[in-house]
Design goal:
Layout lengths: L3 H7 L13 H8 L3 H9 L6 H14 L5 H7 L5 E6 L5 H16 L3 E6 L6 H9 L4 E5 L5 H9 L3 E5 L8 E5 L2 H13 L5 E4 L6 H16 L15 H12 L24 E4 L2 H14 L8 E3 L16 E3 L2 H16 L8 E4 L2 E3 L21
Parallel strand pairs: 1-2, 1-3, 3-4, 4-5, 5-10, 6-7, 7-8
Antiparallel strand pairs: 9-11
Helix pairs in contact: 2-3, 2-4, 6-13, 9-10, 11-12
């Protein structure tokens, strides 16, 4: 016969069943309206009779109705997501821009879809597909041609151009390049360098094109012959290494010159300084110099652009131009959020300042205990 304790244990446990969340259909039923009317009331700026609006709001309050974020987005014809398109996704440049962009969009409850086109032939189709799934797009550099930007705008897609001059009616957020490039090139000229090689690809990047223009202007202002044509390289470290090996000379393509460490030959007409279009190219150039037995800055000066986190920790620390990369992403996000929310109708064009950061790779002496000659990084 079961004892009292067993009888207590055998009793069923009563649970309180939670009422499922109210739906938009229940609100409509209680208020005596259609679900379309409930949606218009939720949008707040849609035309609804005041008496009807009050009735719907009372039903929402009594049922404690909480519309989902997805439901709100669908009701307003929005996706609740933003898109950002890059030509590439490798390297610290893009990660810093994404951090600044995502921080702003997340604060507004927006998700972020990221697309890297990587030079694919179908890049335009990929961007169009992304545009159909987001409320607006940020497009970096020459990822897609101007004609495609115009086509997106004709389809009422909100577009912000990043690191690219203004085009059409789109917003543009970019950094200053030309003056800083002129200053950096002049700095190398002041060190006595005349054979300075520009490594980058002005034809593929608006930023690189502006840096090349400023670089050439420094030679003209100094009364010198125009510099040699750029040594073409992507912004990747591996391509920077290959480009540096090509201009400094290697065992296969070297002209008469000195024998470098490892048995490789150096060109007799090699440059005495490398002006790299970004820090990753400069990293590759550091590697090439190590392979060739060249000392930086004793045998060759090297400069970069961006001031990525590792730049100050290289041996020697890299002279470069600091870009506010996170702020660049954040400004692009704010611009996109403003236009998708209907807060303004006219485009904005912002140019963020850059700053020369002098370290030791250009030949300047720098005590390790002294700060960089530049402001705080991102």
């Amino acid at each position: 016969m079961p004892n009292a304790e067993n009888r207590r244990a055998a009793r069923p446990v009563r649970t309180t069943r939670r009422r499922p969340p109210a739906t938009i259909y229940e609100v409509a039923r209680k208020a005596g309206v259609s679900i379309a009317t409930v949606s218009r009331v939720q949008r707040r700026n849609a035309p609804v009779a005041e008496a009807t609006r009050a009735r719907v709001l009372r039903a929402i309050d009594e049922l404690r109705y909480q519309p989902s974020a997805l439901g709100r987005s669908l009701a307003m014809g929005r996706h609740g997501a933003t898109g950002i398109v890059f030509p590439d996704l490798s390297g610290p440049y893009y990660s810093e821009v994404i951090l600044g962009f995502e921080e702003q969009t997340a604060a507004e409850g927006k998700s972020v879809l990221i697309l890297g086109t990587h030079g694919r032939d179908q890049a335009t189709d990929l961007v169009r597909d992304l545009a159909a799934r987001v409320d607006g797009l940020v497009v970096m550099g020459r990822t897609i041609p101007d004609a495609e930007v115009a086509a997106l705008e004709e389809q009422h897609v909100h577009v912000v151009m990043l690191a690219r001059p203004p085009t059409g009616g789109a917003d543009s957020i970019r950094t200053e390049n030309r003056q800083s490039a002129r200053d950096l090139a002049r700095h190398l000229l002041d060190h006595g360098h005349r054979r300075i090689c520009f490594i980058g690809d002005p034809s593929s990047s608006p930023d690189a094109a502006e840096r090349w223009t400023g670089f050439c202007e420094a030679f003209a202002e100094a009364g010198l012959e125009p510099p040699a044509a750029p040594t073409v390289s992507s912004f990747r470290e591996t391509d920077g290494r290959r480009a540096a090996l090509a201009v400094l000379g290697d065992g296969e393509a070297a002209t008469d010159g000195d024998t470098a460490g490892g048995g490789k030959k150096l060109r007799a007409d090699r440059p005495t300084a490398l002006f790299c279009a970004n820090d990753e190219i400069a990293l590759g150039a550091y590697g090439a110099c190590a392979e060739l037995g060249l000392r930086i800055p004793d045998d060759i000066a090297i400069t970069g652009w961006d001031d990525i986190p590792i730049a100050r920790y290289l041996t020697p620390p890299l002279t470069t131009v600091r870009q506010p990369l996170r702020e660049l992403g954040a400004r692009a996000a704010r611009a996109l959020l403003e236009i998708t929310a209907g807060e303004r109708n006219s485009p904005i064009h912002q140019v963020l300042p850059t700053e020369l950061v002098v370290r030791a790779s250009c030949g300047c002496e720098r005590d390790e205990g002294k700060p960089d000659r530049g402001g705080d990084p991102n």
